[in-house]
């Protein structure tokens, strides 16, 4: 039996996995078309409508048909082929030999694929796509997904989404407080950074954006992530004398780094990997998932789906382990049922009693950190004044060593204590930071019992100097009364308005 005849479209296209690439299109045009399983309908319609190619206009290929010379010759002959095809199409349209179905397809293609996009139309689609991504909070990678490409190939075959894989952007968000002391945030700018991400270049972009918004003299602090170049860029800014330049890295990001380092322990990683495989098994097996749901119902356990963890979001590890532990019995019942789970898979996924014990201990250790992450990630309830008091509280309440601790728990407590003390600079170094000031001005933490005794008076004196340097001169009071009045006025203002401080 002879080999299956190759489609005519492969004279003008090449296949790359499930994508057909048109060889007649320029590089800046949309030349990618879906060809799942070797189907040629999409690329065929493109060749017919855009380049006027069809099986009727096929020419015999030379011996080296895959060479660049043939493609070049094909491009040069497009005009003559187009004329021949058009004349054939006109002649055929006046006869009864043209199938009705083909006529409908050609009319449909005339409304979409044969329309060349103007630069204005492309920009209009770019803006609409950007708005959709922003409103629906979708990742930029959505633009390069096969589903989106297929959709756009139907709607606008000549549209080629812009790629952002190799592009870098900087985003500046402004946090402020309105007249009712309610925190607000606004995105000031998101623009491309096409040079090296050095501290000097980042500082220049920051200053330029703040000047454009005419707020360079109003910025009192800049919160960043923990990357060295961004921190250095903020320290180089010369906007105003009162701006805080240190001690304000994002608390949620700092906590993420601290917990990630703690979870890198070999024993903990082994548990996380095995737990992830169990979740993956149920996610990919509809039979196992249905059996799990049936088992949950029989055991009168709430119907809770298993959750997979994401390495870039540490608290997803806690949520995965918590959901596994709640479903421990139905999970093990399903894995031990040979009518549902084969022996080879069950052996790989079997969780020993000692491993379940480790999960139970990890849930206890991670619970305070999970609650703190949720609090720090909130936009309206998370204030910089909370950071030092709360970090100090969980260290003393949950991570002090106990006699009953095993080796894993000891390592966990040692690592998390070191990471939190280091990243949040909890050890007093005689430098008053913005977090010290914010906590002292918050009536809930004004006693500073979370700080060393020797640090408290230094912080009070420093804040008093700030008030004296910024408050108007008060007359008819001696020096001591003046100080008392100024300090009480600050507290009264915060209490009476139920103050809220800037986001951490």
Short description:
The protein is mainly α and 504 residues long. It contains 20 helices and 5 strands. The strands form 2 sheets. Strands 1-2-3 form a 3-stranded antiparallel β-sheet. It has a two-stranded antiparallel ribbon with strand order 4-5.
What's the number of helices? 20
- Using DSSP, what is the number of strands? 5
Average pLDDT rating: 79
Structural class call reads mainly alpha
Can you write the helix and strand succession as a string?
EEEHHHHHHEEHHHHHHHHHHHHHH
User: What proportion of the residues is helical, as a percent range?
Assistant: 40-55%
- Can you tell me the overall shape? flat
Strand order of the largest sheet: 1-2-3
Task: Give the strand content.
Answer: 5-15%
Distance from N terminus to C terminus (CA atoms, Å) equals: 73 Å
Low-pLDDT runs: 1-5, 59-114, 497-504
Using only CA atoms, what is the Rg? 33 Å
Largest sheet geometry: 3 strands, antiparallel
Structure commentary:
With 504 residues, the chain is mainly alpha-helical. The chain has 20 helices and five strands. It has helices at residues 41-50, 68-76, 78-93, 100-110, 119-136, 146-155, 199-212, 228-236, 251-263, 266-284, 286-298, 315-326, 328-336, 343-349, 353-377, 387-398, 407-423, 434-441, 453-470, 479-496; strands at 13-16, 19-22, 32-34, 169-177, 183-192. Strands 1-2-3 form a three-stranded antiparallel β-sheet. Helix 12 crosses helix 15 and helix 15 (353-377) runs parallel beside helix 17 (407-423). The longest helix has 25 residues, at 353-377. It is flat and about 90 Å long.
């Amino acid at each position: 039996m002879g080999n299956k005849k190759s489609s005519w479209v492969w004279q003008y296209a090449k296949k790359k996995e499930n994508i057909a690439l048109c060889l007649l299109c320029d590089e800046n045009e949309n030349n990618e078309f879906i060809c799942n399983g070797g189907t040629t309908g999409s690329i065929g319609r493109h060749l017919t409508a855009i380049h006027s190619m069809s099986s009727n206009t096929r020419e015999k290929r030379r011996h080296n048909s895959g060479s660049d010379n043939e493609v070049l010759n094909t491009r040069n002959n497009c005009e003559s082929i187009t004329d021949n095809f058009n004349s054939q199409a006109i002649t055929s349209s006046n006869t009864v030999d043209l199938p009705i179905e083909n006529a409908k397809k050609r009319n449909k293609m005339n409304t979409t694929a044969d329309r060349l996009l103007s630069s204005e139309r492309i920009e209009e689609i770019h803006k609409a796509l950007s708005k959709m991504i922003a409103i629906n909070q979708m990742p930029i990678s959505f633009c390069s997904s096969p589903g989106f490409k297929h959709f756009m190939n139907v709607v606008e075959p000549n549209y080629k989404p812009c790629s952002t894989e190799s592009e870098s952007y900087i985003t500046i968000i402004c946090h402020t407080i309105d007249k009712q002391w309610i925190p607000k945030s606004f995105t000031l700018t998101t623009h491309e950074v096409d040079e090296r991400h050095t501290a000097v270049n980042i500082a220049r972009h920051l200053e330029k954006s703040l000047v454009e918004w005419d707020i360079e003299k109003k910025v009192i602090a800049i919160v960043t992530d923990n990357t060295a170049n961004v921190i250095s860029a903020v320290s180089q800014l010369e906007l105003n004398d009162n701006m805080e330049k240190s001690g304000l890295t994002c608390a949620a990001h700092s906590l993420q780094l601290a917990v990630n380092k703690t979870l890198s322990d070999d024993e903990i990683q082994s548990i996380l990997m095995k737990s992830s495989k169990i979740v993956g098994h149920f996610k990919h097996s509809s039979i196992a998932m249905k059996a799990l749901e049936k088992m949950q119902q029989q055991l009168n356990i709430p119907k809770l789906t298993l959750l997979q963890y994401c390495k870039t979001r540490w608290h997803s590890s806690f949520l995965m382990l918590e959901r596994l532990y709640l479903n421990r019995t139905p999970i093990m019942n399903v894995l031990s049922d040979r009518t549902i789970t084969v022996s080879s898979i069950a052996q790989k996924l079997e969780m020993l009693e000692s491993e379940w014990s480790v999960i139970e201990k990890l849930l206890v250790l991670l619970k305070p950190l999970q609650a703190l992450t949720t609090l720090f990630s909130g936009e309206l309830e998370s204030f910089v004044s909370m950071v030092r008091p709360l970090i100090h509280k969980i260290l003393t309440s949950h991570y002090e060593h106990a006699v009953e601790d095993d080796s894993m728990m000891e390592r966990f407590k040692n690592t998390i204590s070191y990471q939190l003390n280091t990243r949040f600079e909890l050890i007093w170094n005689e430098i008053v930071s913005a977090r010290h000031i914010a906590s002292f001005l918050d009536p809930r933490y004004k006693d500073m019992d979370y700080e060393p005794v020797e640090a408290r008076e230094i912080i009070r004196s420093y804040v008093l100097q700030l008030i004296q340097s910024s408050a108007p001169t008060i007359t008819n009071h001696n020096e001591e009364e003046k100080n008392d009045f100024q300090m009480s006025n600050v507290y009264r203002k915060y209490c009476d308005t139920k103050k809220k401080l800037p986001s951490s």
